[in-house]
Amino acid sequence: MFEVRVEADFAAAHFLRDYNGKCENLHGHNYKVYAHVRGPKLNEGGMLLDFSKLKAALRSVCKKLDHTNLNDFDLFEQNPSAERIAMYIYDGIIDELKKEGLDLSFSKEKESPVLFAVDVFETETSRARYRVD
To answer: pTM score, two decimals?
Structure first.
Protein backbone atom coordinates (compact mmCIF):
# COMPACT_ATOMS: atom_id res chain seq x y z
CA MET A 1 0.00 0.00 0.00
CA PHE A 2 1.28 3.45 -0.91
CA GLU A 3 0.47 6.63 0.98
CA VAL A 4 1.01 10.32 0.29
CA ARG A 5 0.34 13.31 2.50
CA VAL A 6 0.09 17.03 1.82
CA GLU A 7 -0.39 19.86 4.26
CA ALA A 8 -1.84 23.34 4.43
CA ASP A 9 -2.70 25.81 7.15
CA PHE A 10 -5.17 28.50 8.01
CA ALA A 11 -5.87 30.89 10.87
CA ALA A 12 -9.35 31.18 12.36
CA ALA A 13 -11.25 32.06 15.49
CA HIS A 14 -13.91 30.04 17.25
CA PHE A 15 -15.53 29.27 20.56
CA LEU A 16 -17.16 26.09 21.79
CA ARG A 17 -20.69 26.32 23.03
CA ASP A 18 -21.61 23.51 25.44
CA TYR A 19 -18.06 23.53 26.78
CA ASN A 20 -17.14 24.36 30.36
CA GLY A 21 -13.68 25.91 30.26
CA LYS A 22 -11.56 28.53 28.59
CA CYS A 23 -12.45 27.33 25.07
CA GLU A 24 -16.01 28.57 25.56
CA ASN A 25 -14.54 32.06 25.03
CA LEU A 26 -13.70 33.40 21.59
CA HIS A 27 -10.09 32.53 20.73
CA GLY A 28 -8.01 31.66 17.69
CA HIS A 29 -5.71 29.01 16.32
CA ASN A 30 -3.17 28.68 13.56
CA TYR A 31 -4.46 25.36 12.26
CA LYS A 32 -2.30 22.89 10.39
CA VAL A 33 -4.06 20.35 8.20
CA TYR A 34 -2.76 17.10 6.70
CA ALA A 35 -4.61 15.19 3.98
CA HIS A 36 -3.68 11.51 3.56
CA VAL A 37 -4.29 9.46 0.42
CA ARG A 38 -3.53 5.78 0.03
CA GLY A 39 -3.84 3.14 -2.64
CA PRO A 40 -2.37 -0.17 -3.79
CA LYS A 41 -1.17 0.87 -7.25
CA LEU A 42 0.91 3.58 -8.84
CA ASN A 43 -0.12 5.29 -12.07
CA GLU A 44 1.83 5.08 -15.33
CA GLY A 45 4.06 7.91 -14.09
CA GLY A 46 5.02 5.96 -10.96
CA MET A 47 2.90 8.10 -8.64
CA LEU A 48 -0.07 7.34 -6.44
CA LEU A 49 -1.49 10.81 -7.06
CA ASP A 50 -0.13 14.10 -8.30
CA PHE A 51 0.78 16.10 -5.18
CA SER A 52 -0.21 19.35 -6.87
CA LYS A 53 -3.83 18.25 -7.40
CA LEU A 54 -4.24 17.17 -3.80
CA LYS A 55 -2.53 20.32 -2.48
CA ALA A 56 -4.70 22.55 -4.64
CA ALA A 57 -7.89 20.89 -3.35
CA LEU A 58 -6.77 21.09 0.28
CA ARG A 59 -5.70 24.72 -0.03
CA SER A 60 -8.96 25.67 -1.71
CA VAL A 61 -10.97 24.25 1.19
CA CYS A 62 -8.72 25.82 3.84
CA LYS A 63 -8.93 29.20 2.10
CA LYS A 64 -12.69 29.23 2.78
CA LEU A 65 -11.96 28.96 6.52
CA ASP A 66 -8.95 31.29 6.69
CA HIS A 67 -9.37 34.41 8.83
CA THR A 68 -12.99 33.67 9.71
CA ASN A 69 -14.95 33.05 12.86
CA LEU A 70 -15.79 29.37 12.44
CA ASN A 71 -18.93 29.82 14.52
CA ASP A 72 -20.38 31.78 11.59
CA PHE A 73 -20.59 28.53 9.56
CA ASP A 74 -24.01 26.96 10.17
CA LEU A 75 -22.71 23.47 9.47
CA PHE A 76 -20.60 23.51 12.65
CA GLU A 77 -23.76 24.07 14.74
CA GLN A 78 -22.00 26.65 16.94
CA ASN A 79 -19.45 24.02 18.00
CA PRO A 80 -16.60 24.11 15.49
CA SER A 81 -14.52 21.43 17.15
CA ALA A 82 -11.36 20.14 15.49
CA GLU A 83 -13.26 16.92 14.77
CA ARG A 84 -16.01 18.75 12.86
CA ILE A 85 -13.46 20.88 11.03
CA ALA A 86 -11.61 17.72 9.94
CA MET A 87 -14.82 16.20 8.54
CA TYR A 88 -15.67 19.46 6.74
CA ILE A 89 -12.22 19.57 5.14
CA TYR A 90 -12.41 15.90 4.16
CA ASP A 91 -15.76 16.41 2.41
CA GLY A 92 -14.48 19.60 0.79
CA ILE A 93 -11.41 17.89 -0.65
CA ILE A 94 -13.57 15.12 -2.10
CA ASP A 95 -15.83 17.73 -3.73
CA GLU A 96 -12.91 19.78 -5.10
CA LEU A 97 -11.25 16.72 -6.63
CA LYS A 98 -14.51 15.55 -8.20
CA LYS A 99 -14.61 18.87 -10.06
CA GLU A 100 -11.22 17.84 -11.51
CA GLY A 101 -12.54 14.43 -12.53
CA LEU A 102 -10.88 12.58 -9.62
CA ASP A 103 -12.97 10.45 -7.29
CA LEU A 104 -11.03 9.77 -4.10
CA SER A 105 -14.06 8.78 -2.06
CA PHE A 106 -13.72 5.60 -0.04
CA SER A 107 -14.78 2.15 -1.20
CA LYS A 108 -13.30 -1.14 0.03
CA GLU A 109 -13.25 -2.52 -3.51
CA LYS A 110 -11.36 0.40 -5.06
CA GLU A 111 -8.00 -0.19 -6.68
CA SER A 112 -7.52 3.55 -7.17
CA PRO A 113 -6.33 6.04 -4.53
CA VAL A 114 -8.67 7.13 -1.74
CA LEU A 115 -8.59 10.04 0.67
CA PHE A 116 -8.60 8.10 3.92
CA ALA A 117 -7.78 10.70 6.58
CA VAL A 118 -7.64 14.40 7.36
CA ASP A 119 -5.77 15.61 10.44
CA VAL A 120 -6.48 19.03 11.95
CA PHE A 121 -3.98 20.35 14.48
CA GLU A 122 -5.15 23.17 16.73
CA THR A 123 -1.70 23.21 18.31
CA GLU A 124 1.46 21.20 17.74
CA THR A 125 0.31 18.73 20.38
CA SER A 126 -3.46 18.58 19.79
CA ARG A 127 -4.87 16.83 16.73
CA ALA A 128 -8.23 15.52 15.58
CA ARG A 129 -8.52 13.07 12.71
CA TYR A 130 -11.45 12.27 10.43
CA ARG A 131 -10.83 8.91 8.82
CA VAL A 132 -12.69 6.45 6.64
CA ASP A 133 -11.90 2.77 6.15
So the answer is: 0.94
